[in-house]
Each structure stands twice: as structure tokens, then as C-alpha cells.
Queue: 2 jobs
Job 1
Amino acid sequence: MTHIDHRRNERGNVFFYIFVGVALFGALSFAISQGNRGSVQTLERDRDKLLASDIIEYGETVARAVAQIRLRGATAAQVSFAHDDLSATYGTPGTNPDFEVFDPTGGGVVLKTIDAASGVGVPSMVFTGSNEFIGAGTTAGTAASADLIMMVRDLRADVCKWINVLVDIQSDSAAIPVDAQADFTLFDGTYAGTQTLGDDDTEDRLRNHSSGCFRDTNANQYIFYRVLIAR
């Protein structure tokens, strides 16, 4: 009788250990999956911050080049973005190389293709003189107050958010500022001040920020901007 009870106890112990083993394996698998998920999220966040930083830095590079060209005597209308790989609207490369942003003797900027991972589809770079930005120069709604602005269109929301975080416009948990009036007319030396940017955000967060990102509610896209010449 004692022998039989002993065997039953052994079977009970075996089932108990199997149960504990299955439970521990399940807990370990869950912990690993959660850890992997956290690692992926961290990698995606770091990637988006890097992409955002890259766009900001390129905007600064272009802004410095424009400033150098202005110091050489170029008027705000003479600054040129002519390049063989850009729209002919910007002008013909080599026409006035000293005043051309992408010419080695002018601004010396190497034309950059925005990383596709930054955008929805293919992000595009635009240089326009058809907007004025709130807090940049004067805001009068006229051609004389229009600013020269670089834009990168069709960004992903997370990249846009990190641009704003990096330039101290918003926290990473806040909503992205909005605007409904961006004009994307390519700059050919002519300014038009029909649109004011940065004035639709209820918290007025874009004012006095020379670079940042907003959601264009009319075009339904996220747009990086860098004011190159404030007028």
C-alpha cells in the first residue's frame, strides 16, 4: 500500500513540474516578445530621429549657402536654385554661378535626395518665395514681405514630430502644429506674399522658429520648412 502511494506521489510531482515548466516557458516567451517589441520601437524611434536630424542639418546647409551668396552682393531675388536635376523653373545652371546655391563657385551645396524612409512615397524638396512665415521679418501679406523658404513635402508624421522636438517646437507626445495655406510655387526670382504660414496653430508654436514641421491640412501632408531669407 505504501509502495502504491509513493508511486502516485511521484506521478503527482511529475505533473506539477511539467505544469511549472510550461508556465515558466510561457512567461519567458512573453518576456522575450515584449523585449523584442520594445527593441523594435526603440530602433524605429532612433531611426526617425536620425532622419529628422538629417533634414534639419541639410536645411541649415542651404541657409548658410544663401547667406554667403547674399554677402557677395546678391539681392533676395537673385538667389538661384538652378540645377540640372531640378525643375527648369529655378533657372538655367551656370547663368550666374556666383549666386547659384548649387554651383561650386556659388553656395557650393551638393544637391541631396531626401531619404525615402523619411516620407510617404517620395519626399520632395521645394524652394518657394510665395509664402511669408509668422515671426520671420514682417508679416504684411504682400510680395515685399514674402520670405524665401525651403520645404520638404510628404514626410511621415513621426519624422515631422521629431523635427519639431529637436528644434524645441513641441514635446514628443504633443500634436503636430497645423497650417492650411502653404503655397508650393517654385521660386524663379519672383516673390508673392499671398499666404501666411504658422498662423493656424492654436498654440502659436511655430512663431519665431526659422525651421520646423507642420501638417498642411489642405494638402494633407507633413512639411518641413526652413526660412532662408526673412523679409
Note: The first strand starts at residue 119 and ends at 133.
Job 2
Amino acid sequence: MKDPLLQSLAYISRFYGQANSPDALIADLPLTDGLLTPFLLPRAAEKAGLQAKQTQLTFDKLSPLLFPVIAILKGGDACVVLSIDQEKGEAEVVLPQSDGSEQWI
């Protein structure tokens, strides 16, 4: 089963040079239907040596200093936002359900 939130966290963990397997990130966490939830994300991030905080922001309110960030999308999907081009109204993202390549949307 694909877990876009877990895959996004694993991507950010690798981005920062941490070699954490997805299984290690969720070890001993009370998953819901086998999936990482936004509520559990901070605990999983701690296992990777990272900090996570859930907040609701629009893309124009994100500071470039925060990137990369995990965006939780409508419908429960998630992606990693690497940067925002305000002039073009586009975001550079990694969609974990794809091949993991960076793309502009």
C-alpha cells in the first residue's frame, strides 16, 4: 500500500542526508489503516532527526527558508514542495506516487 505522507517524509529525510527507511520512521507508531497520519507526522519526523509542525498556510505565505515542506493535499494525498515561483504561480514538487522526480505544477 502506498503511503504518500510517509514517502514524503522519507524524501525529506534523504534530502537532509539521513538514511532512514520508511519502516524505521513508523516503527512503533499507532498507524491508522497502516498509514502515517498528519497527527503522527511529528513523531515520525523525530525518528529522522527532524522537526515537523502542522499548520495551514497558502503557498504565498510560505517562507523560502522553510523548504522543503510536506503539503497535505485534499483527498489525503501529500507531496513535497521544494520551491515556489510566485511570479508564475507554480510550485516545484515531488509527488511520491510518481517516480520521485521533481516537477513544476
Note: The radius of gyration is 13 Å.
